[in-house]
Write a structure and sequence with these properties.
Layout: E1 3-6, E2 9-11, H1 16-28, H2 51-56, H3 82-91, H4 99-110, E3 114-117, H5 123-131, E4 142-145, H6 146-150
Parallel strand pairs: 3-4
Antiparallel strand pairs: 1-2
């Protein structure tokens, strides 16, 4: 599993045959698997070979404790230690994304009531409803996409 996105949405990565078999089994169980073309096997052990190169990018960077709450999709938690943040930035290339836990913890701890997606896609917005199932006051959290509000043409 490369992404724990919501209670009803996982991202899988693997060999084409293994993914085809998983798709078949999931479809038989009533799920709706969708193939997403990607450039690599990110967020999986298959990308671990890139870790030394990627981790080296952070050798000369000095991070300070964040002044604002910073939640990591590597741990799903709020992170404050600069050394751990550098480590997680490097490890994110080959570890699963814990989006559901990140969002649930962010909303619960920080009393978040409005989220704005800063991307040209709708991936996170599409996940928003299930992602708040663990949040006790999910109906009060608004989710929007900045690009769509600005009516940007991304073609």
């Amino acid at each position: 599993v490369a992404g724990w996105n919501s209670p009803t949405h996982l991202t899988l990565v693997g060999d084409a045959d293994a993914i085809a078999a998983a798709d078949e089994a999931l479809a038989a169980a009533g799920a709706k698997p969708v193939a997403v073309p990607v450039a690599g096997c990110w967020h999986s052990s298959r990308a671990a070979c890139a870790l030394p190169l990627f981790a080296g990018l952070f050798d000369d960077i000095v991070l300070h404790p964040p002044r604002l709450p910073l939640y990591s999709s590597v741990s799903g938690r709020r992170e404050t230690d600069p050394t751990e943040l550098c480590s997680q930035l490097a490890r994110q290339i080959h570890t699963p994304v814990y989006w559901q836990a990140t969002l649930a913890n962010l909303c619960a701890a920080e009393k978040v009531r409005s989220l704005v997606e800063l991307s040209c896609g709708r991936t996170l917005a599409a996940l928003q409803s299930p992602a708040y199932h663990q949040h006790p006051d999910e109906s009060s959290v608004r989710y929007s996409n900045l690009y769509q509000q600005l009516k940007v043409d991304y073609a």
